[in-house]
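Suppose a colleague, Dr. K., hands you the sequence of a protein chain of 274 amino acids and asks what its three-dimensional shape might be. Before reaching for any lab equipment, you can write down a predicted structure in token form. Begin with the sequence itself:
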Amino acid sequence: MIDVRDVTVRIGEAVLLEDVTTSVRPGRVTVVVGPNGAGKTTLLRTVSGTQAPSGGSVRMDDRALTAFTAHQQALRRAVLPQKVSLPFSFSVVDVVLMGRTPHVRGATESQTDVEIAYAALDRVAMTDFADRDYATLSGGEQQRVHLARALAQVWDPPDNGHRYLLLDEPTASLDLAHQHGVLSIATALAVEGAGVLAVLHDLNLAAQYADHVVVLRKGAIAAQGRPDDVLTPSLIRDVFDVSVLVQPHPCHDCPLVVPYSGTDIPEVPEHRAA
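The predicted structure, expressed as tokens, is then:
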């Protein structure tokens, strides 16, 4: 488990996070939501170890995160940031093989590393693009390649401890089908025992795929818990300043968030089975 306790992050006069306590648990998908500037990316960067907290602590598998070397952290957790820029031309499979760097022993990747890279590409439905120049891909395709890179990095659990996948807005550049595809992959990884943390903007994606939702507002936790318990009309109105109906999803065991404009709750037609 990655345990975040009373974490505060200050940059100059700005307080980006304040007394945040939450966790990323193996076997669970945790989704962080909140308005722009709420501190979602800062929380993910703190969990990943790229942002040192000003106060509080972050522990991974019962050890202080700072007790792990950068290499040891890379063996246990992979991060998919919002944007990744590559200054040179690489083939798609070479980009995915970058995820195997912490595991490489010697001067070059092993046959096992190459097989894992292709398996990761297959999982994101990009095998046919393996030999393409990464720079020629669309933004959404590039995002899927980097997801494959992250998957390749944590393909197998470490010898001692758990593996974690940290995703910062992984659906931002993707069409509807691939949004659900990415989050289905994340869910499958959690079922395999990994801990997943994802920053999302879409509350309905959070409702459908999260086991645990963390709602941030102005750097503090406004609520956290199961989607059914957290994604309520009153909380969404208070945090996001938008009026919504929250109803049972017609196809999934999760809430469905429907925004509306105006001050009166609209009449909702009765749902009838076809």
